[in-house]
Amino acid sequence: MKKIVFIFIILSLTACSSTPFEVLQGLFGYIPPPEETTVGEELKLEFDRCEKINRNRNCAQIAYDMVRTVKGLEPRKVPKGVVIILEGNVKMDDEEEK
User: Fold this and answer.
1) How far apart are CA 67 and CA 60, in angstroms?
2) Is 10 within the bounds of a domain?
3) Are 67 and 42 in contact (CB under 8 A)?
4) Which stretch of 21-25, 32-36, 70-74 has the lowest confidence by average pLDDT?
5) Which residues form the domain of 3?
6) What is each CA distance from 68 to 26, 57, 75, 83, 87, in whole angstroms?
7) Is the pTM of this model over 0.70?
8) Does 25 reside within a domain?
9) Is residue 79 part of a domain?
10) pLDDT tens-digit map of 49-65
């Protein structure tokens, strides 16, 4: 009787996952590492997080400093100037003249 219960438990555990290895990982409390993100994705996340806290802060520099520290990049200052981000289908004046 105990063998049948044990086999039933093993079969029910393996039916919920794709491999027996995943069952063992679950039994021993394995937590997979988070997915690796790119520098661009990290910058966007940090910038959005900073803007949610306070839009009047220098979020570009704060995001860059945070990502640089986490990813181990060389320290550089964000260049001064204006960046215009266009979304959607935007036609430039030069394209219309040609």
Assistant:
1) 11
2) yes
3) yes
4) 21-25
5) 1-32
6) 34, 18, 7, 20, 26
7) no
8) yes
9) no
10) 999 998 888 888 899 88
